[in-house]
């Protein structure tokens, strides 16, 4: 299941583009500091979604799995807000697993950790 973020995708893209031109040095530092480009992080998320989805199916757990990669400007804002460096930002990727019951939630945690 692919989630369409609609206007948020446009917002994220415009923020990154504006950031690139308004703060080119900070933008470059973050881009160079990231081990992978956003597209590569998104591809990694897709692989993880498939792998987790297969494991949940084996456990007969019905789930919706979504994921996203943080965009550059949001990383910059978090660094500024928390006064930390890129090496202290640990949530560059996000996965969300939605299940139908508390029982399935704990079962999903067990099989995916």
Main features:
single chain; 113 residues; alpha+beta; Beta Polymerase, domain 2; two-stranded antiparallel ribbon; 5 helices; 2 strands; 61% helix; elongated
Spatial ordering of strands, largest sheet: 1-2
What is the fold named in CATH at topology level? Beta Polymerase, domain 2
Report the CATH C-level class.
Answer: Alpha Beta
- How many structural domains in the coordinates? 1
- Sheet with most strands: 2 strands, antiparallel
How far apart lie the N and C ends? 22 Å
Number of helical segments with 4 or more residues = 5
Q: What does the overall shape look like? A: elongated
Strand content: 5-15%
Q: Would you count the extended β strands for me? A: 2
Low-confidence stretches: none
Structural class: alpha+beta
| Helical amount | 55-70%
Determine Rg (CA atoms, Å). 17 Å
Q: Overall mean pLDDT score? A: 88
CATH architecture classification: 2-Layer Sandwich
The helix/strand order is HHHEHEH
Question: What does this protein structure show overall?
Answer:
The chain is an alpha+beta fold. It has a single domain, classed as Beta Polymerase, domain 2. Helices cover 61% and strands 12% of the residues. The chain has 5 helices and 2 strands. The protein has helices spanning 7-22, 24-33, 38-58, 72-82, 102-112, and strands spanning 63-69, 93-99. 10% of the residues are buried. The mean pLDDT is 88.
């Amino acid at each position: 299941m692919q989630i369409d973020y609609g206007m948020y995708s446009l917002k994220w893209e415009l923020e990154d583009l504006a950031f690139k031109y308004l703060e080119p040095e900070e933008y470059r530092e973050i881009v160079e500091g990231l081990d992978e480009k956003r597209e590569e992080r998104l591809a990694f998320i897709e692989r993880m979604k498939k792998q987790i989805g297969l494991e949940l199916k084996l456990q007969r757990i019905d789930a919706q799995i979504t994921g996203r990669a943080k965009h550059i400007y949001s990383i910059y804002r978090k660094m500024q807000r928390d006064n930390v460096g890129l090496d202290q930002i640990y949530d560059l990727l996000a996965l969300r697993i939605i299940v139908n019951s508390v029982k399935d939630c704990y079962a999903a945690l067990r099989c995916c950790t």
